[in-house]
Design a protein that fits this description.
This protein is α+β, with helices and mostly antiparallel strands. It folds into three domains: about 90 residues, Ankyrin repeat-containing domain (Serine Threonine Protein Phosphatase 5, Tetratricopeptide repeat, Alpha Horseshoe); about 80 residues, 2-Layer Sandwich (Phosphorylase Kinase, domain 1); about 180 residues, Transferase(Phosphotransferase), domain 1. About 40% of the residues lie in helices and about 10% in strands. The protein is built from 17 helices and ten strands. The protein has a six-stranded mixed β-sheet with strand order 2-6-7-5-4-3. Helix 6 runs antiparallel to helix 7. The longest helix is centred in the last third of the chain and has 21 residues. The two termini are about 40 Å apart. Bound molecules: adenosine-5'-triphosphate (ATP).
């Protein structure tokens, strides 16, 4: 399976970077472990109390999540920003509330702490009574990195039931993160986003329901059909881009998928594509034996943006990079470098700037230009999904015009 949980033995080229960044991050590690002496030591060395990790999580976020009252007080006294927000717009108070650390909440509130995502953390996931789901007649659809997926009937309607392995769900923090992600997912409504329905209550396993998409994943389609014709590929690309644009424009903070792959794009009966499983890659970031792991690595290697592989800070454009590789596969009929191990592919992309080939026969010029922009090594040069949608709409129109003109080969128009 090519799913990346942070590699235990990262590539040699990654190693020196980790060593470099791990030193100041001891403050974060000690804060999450409740090691007050360690925190005092780090602060005495001059480590900045507002130091944040790749997800912009500070020592105060971590101590608040764990309810380490003394460390929270210490950090505040040393100048930690009580309202620093992480990548998902969460403050230390949001975290303390999520884990019901009442005393910590009071301290943070006294210091002026606010909780901008309060509604998220107080609005639990929609719950479905497990007796309403007919598990006796469930059909196994498939299995992914997180668990099995079944086709079941809920109130007489066919839906997909996704189970989460007990090895993952048994960790209370991971479970909490997971339920928070689902609570966010349940608020989303978009034709190109798989609809979340609810989490099962009183079930012996952690399980949630989504709409059932009977045509399976884009991965299955490409395996079955191979290369797609240009009109279909562009229509599919537009579906994905529209779903992703909705996630990236989400307020108050953007939702980054971080694991956009052909397996996470499903097709409904009418042929429309929908994006699924966003945010779930977060639960792959389990804590290491020391209690805190400094890593940027989540998602599947084959579609991973170079900055994620190199464990640098990253933003929404990591999804644009993955999107480009998916579009490439639609024209190509699958990954171009199937024979190579996914991690090796990611390594070469990250350190040798290698990208899949763009043969002139298969790829219209306009698509080539778009792909080069989307997988640009500099994340700042990659277009937003809004810009991608505009470009794809123009390409789609040109394709339609070409069809109407009929006699000329469509390649001439690009
Ligand atoms: N809502 C759904 N409707 C229909 N089929 C689904 C649905 N969700 C998942 N599947 C199918 O179930 C299988 C397993 O899906 P799952 O999302 O668990 O893993 P994956 O996406 O294949 O891999 P990974 O977990 O590594 O991302 C896939 O073949 C997928 O097509």
């Amino acid at each position: 399976m090519e799913k990346l949980t942070p590699p235990s033995t990262p590539s040699k080229r990654v190693q020196p970077q980790i060593t470099d960044i791990e030193v100041p991050y001891r403050l974060l590690h000690c804060s999450s472990k409740g090691d007050k002496a360690g925190v005092i030591q780090e602060l005495a060395k001059g480590v900045e109390p507002n130091l944040a990790d790749y997800d912009k999580r500070t020592a105060l976020h971590l101590a608040s999540s764990e309810g380490c009252v003394e460390i929270v007080l210490l950090l505040l006294e040393k100048g930690a920003n009580v309202n620093s927000t992480d990548r998902w717009g969460r403050t230390p108070l949001s975290d303390a509330r999520s884990f019901h650390h009442e005393e910590t909440c009071k301290i943070l509130e006294n210091w002026g702490g606010m909780d901008p995502v309060g509604l998220d953390s107080q609005n639990p996931c929609c719950e479905i009574d497990h007796t309403e789901v007919d598990m006796d007649n469930a059909t196994l659809i498939g299995e992914g990195a997180y668990g099995e997926v079944y086709l079941v009937k809920w109130r007489g309607t066919e839906v997909a039931a996704k189970t989460i392995r007990s090895s993952i769900a048994s960790n209370p923090n991971v479970k909490k993160t997971f339920l928070d992600e689902l609570a966010l997912w349940q608020k989303l409504r978009h034709p190109n986003i798989v609809q979340f329905l609810g989490v099962l209550k009183h079930s012996d396993r952690l399980m949630f329901l989504t709409e059932y998409l009977r045509n399976g994943s884009l991965y299955d389609t490409l395996k079955r059909k191979g290369r797609l014709d240009s009109a279909t590929a562009v229509a599919y690309a537009l579906d994905i881009a529209r779903g992703m644009n909705y996630l990236h424009q989400h307020k108050p903070h953007a939702i980054i998928h971080r694991d956009l792959t052909p397996r996470n794009v499903l097709q409904d009966q009418s042929g429309r594509l929908k994006v699924t499983d966003f945010g779930l890659s977060k639960i792959a970031q389990e804590k290491d034996a020391l209690g805190y792991k400094m890593t940027g690595g989540t998602g599947s290697y084959r579609y991973m943006a170079p900055e994620v592989y190199r464990r640098e800070s990253y933003g929404k454009s990591v999804d644009v990079f993955s999107f480009a590789l998916i579009v490439h596969e639609m024209f190509h009929g699958g990954p171009s470098n199937r024979a190579q191990a996914p991690e090796q592919v990611a390594d070469k992309r990250a350190y040798e700037d290698l990208r899949p080939p763009l043969s002139s026969f298969v790829y219209p010029e306009s698509i080539k230009t778009l792909l080069r922009e989307c997988w640009h090594k500099n994340p700042n040069y990659r277009p937003t999904f809004e810009e991608i949608i505009s470009q794809l709409e123009i390409i789609q129109e040109s394709l339609q015009n070409t069809k109407e003109v009929g006699c000329c080969g469509w390649l001439q128009l690009f």
